[in-house]
Specification:
The complex is a heterodimer. Chain A is built from eleven helices and 15 strands. Chain A is elongated, with a radius of gyration of 22 Å. By secondary structure, chain B is mostly helical. The two termini of chain B are 22 Å apart. The chains are: A alpha/beta, B mainly alpha. At the A-B interface, helix 2, helix 3 and helix 5 of A face helix 1 and helix 5 of B.
Chain lengths: 307, 261
């Protein structure tokens, strides 16, 4: 049976005057999975997340989280009751101690996970009686993540969760997230750390300039995305771009007697067409998420420049 | 727990207000005999010195002496400063400090967040306003004099009711401006303008222009020295001031509910 997406947006947009922070965003985040929301700085990740939590009002489109509309104040309350969230900067009340803010946050969430609280406190070794004002950035990040994770939500939304954590703690956090997902919690996290998205995400969204560029499961991306290098005896034919104008060819770059293709699907058909153009060598290479990310950005920015 | 958060946020400013208001109040109770002795000696030694209009009555009438220095002047100043300080805070200020994301991710409406914050700070302000009403009779009794509780309560009520606009103004400024210090600077500057410029005009009852008398908020907060019956209360000014405070707070709520953070 198909379960409805935990996050669904249609044509979601946010404009600040003439600046479009998010444009025509169509997201469908599957339930019970870990989804990575990848994009460079300023891509619109945080604005999208803040719209989902009712902090920023959408300029257009619709969005639901766990079936509740984000633009309805009452339904937005329901969303926040069921969602754990840690924001990008992870600032907390400086005037509270760690124990005070844990007690404070716990009071709003009946499903608070005491077991996780104990485990994370033991992992993070946070000084409970110290004021947050005196915490290092790493400690503050750990505490903010604890406060998000222990809410016991059906969905966990984390904006750059490992920013400010040392590699050991980042790894530990990723383990915790995988464990939560195994227990049925859907996780949607933004990052520009491609390696960690590749490590734990099952579904990936790539955005740039406020627009969604790529949406798919990491497994299918690994299967379908390819780099195809074509080598020609003489110069690369002038009509190579028109000759390879088939669905799946996202970008063609030419250097000397070599053409490099970035292909998102239909690789067999692309290879067939390449041979028809008399390429003497056709190499098909698998590519990782990093290349998919970079190539998608280059393709989108090139298209924008042409428009 | 929102009440607890609001208390933690405001308690240092509230305690500063308690110290300020308490010190000002008790100073004039304790200093009264020394000041009277000095004035009497001045009258003998310098009979040619000009006398301010309040001088003779303050010399003879202890409650009037306290009203003049406290409810009409320094206590009022201290309370207005507290009103400006306690009006600061709220979600826009949290956005500056970077904590708005955490607060707004809690399952609490923005209306409730601001309401709790406003009620806690407002209650602290009321406590600060009424603290002298109790300190004056108590301090006076300890000093061997009497000050009627009823008079203190009436003057405190007038000071709080007439001055809530300052609180409303700072709450609004703190909702509009995404800056930690500008709301305080504007609030303090507005109070300073009122006390150092406008009140000087308004005090001169003969030459004061009409607009200065209408905007004489310090005069309204002080009220007449004798508040013996409801007829002595400047009801029109008081209601106008409360309406202004309500409008300012209403505008803050509207802004907070509709803004992006």
């Amino acid at each position: 049976m198909n379960t409805p997406p935990v996050i669904a947006t249609r044509g979601l947009a946010k404009r600040y005057g003439s600046f479009a922070a998010v444009t025509d965003m169509n997201l469908s985040v599957p339930s019970g999975t870990i989804s990575g929301f990848l994009g460079p700085n300023g891509a619109g990740k945080s604005t999208t997340i803040r719209m989902l939590l009712g902090m920023v009002r959408p300029s257009g489109g619709t969005a639901t989280v766990l079936g509740f509309r984000v633009d309805d104040p009452r339904e937005s309350l329901e969303i926040r009751r069921r969602v754990g969230y840690a924001g990008e900067d992870k600032r907390l009340y400086d005037y509270m101690t760690a124990a005070q803010i844990i007690r404070f946050t716990r009071s709003f969430f009946p499903g608070w996970r005491l077991d996780l609280e104990r485990r994370l406190l033991s992992d993070f070794r946070l000084p409970l009686d110290r004021r947050i004002k005196k915490f290092s950035k790493g400690m503050r990040t750990q505490l903010a993540l604890l406060l998000a994770i222990c809410r016991g939500g059906e969905l966990l939304i984390l904006d750059e969760p490992t920013e400010g954590l040392d590699p050991i703690m980042a790894e530990r956090l990723l383990e915790v997230l995988v464990g939560l997902a195994a227990d049925g919690t859907a996780i949607f996290f933004s990052s520009h750390q491609i390696a960690e998205v590749e490590q734990i995400a099952e579904h990936v969204f790539i955005i740039d300039g406020g627009r969604l560029l790529v949406d798919g499961s990491l497994e299918s991306m690994r299967e379908e995305y390819r780099r195809v290098d074509l080598v020609f005896d003489t110069a690369v034919p002038d009509d190579i771009r028109t000759g390879l104008a088939v669905p799946g060819v996202e970008r063609v770059s030419v250097s000397g007697r070599t053409a490099r293709l970035f292909v998102s699907r239909n690789v067999d058909h692309v290879v067939h067409r390449s041979r028809a153009l008399h390429a003497t060598a056709v190499d098909v290479l698998p590519i990782g998420l990093k290349d998919i990310f970079l190539e998608s950005l280059k393709t989108a920015r090139r298209t924008d420049a042409l428009v | 727990m929102l009440w607890y958060k609001a208390w933690l946020e405001t308690r240092s400013r509230f305690l500063l207000g308690v110290v300020l208001v308490g010190a000002v109040t008790l100073f004039f109770v304790a200093a009264h005999p020394f000041m009277i002795r000095q004035w009497q000696s001045d009258l003998v030694l310098h009979p040619d010195w000009p006398e301010p209009h309040w001088f003779r009555r303050a010399l003879a009438d202890y409650p009037y002496f306290l009203w003049h220095f406290l409810f009409a002047e320094l206590l009022q100043n201290a309370w207005v400063l507290s009103a400006v300080l306690l009006g600061l805070g709220g979600i826009a200020q949290e956005a500056v400090q970077g904590t708005a994301g955490f607060t707004l991710s809690l399952p609490v409406s923005r209306r409730r967040l601001l309401a709790v914050r406003t009620v806690v700070a407002g209650a602290e302000l009321v406590v600060l306003g009424f603290l002298p009403a109790f300190l004056l009779p108590l301090g006076s009794a300890l000093a061997g004099r009497t000050y009627p509780l009823g008079s203190g309560l009436a003057h405190s009520a007038l000071m709080v009711g007439g001055g809530l606009g300052f609180f409303g103004l700072t709450v609004l400024l703190a909702s509009v401006l995404r800056d930690e210090h500008t709301p305080m600077l504007i609030g303090v500057s507005a109070a300073a303008l009122l006390y150092f410029v406008l009140q000087t005009y308004a005090d001169d009852a003969v030459r004061a222009p009409l607009w200065a008398r209408i905007l004489d908020l310090p005069g309204l907060m002080a009220g007449p020295p004798d508040l013996a019956s409801p007829g002595d209360v400047p009801w029109a000014g008081l209601l106008l001031s409360l309406a202004a405070a309500t409008l300012l707070l209403g505008a803050s709520f509207h802004l907070t509910l509709t803004r992006d953070y």
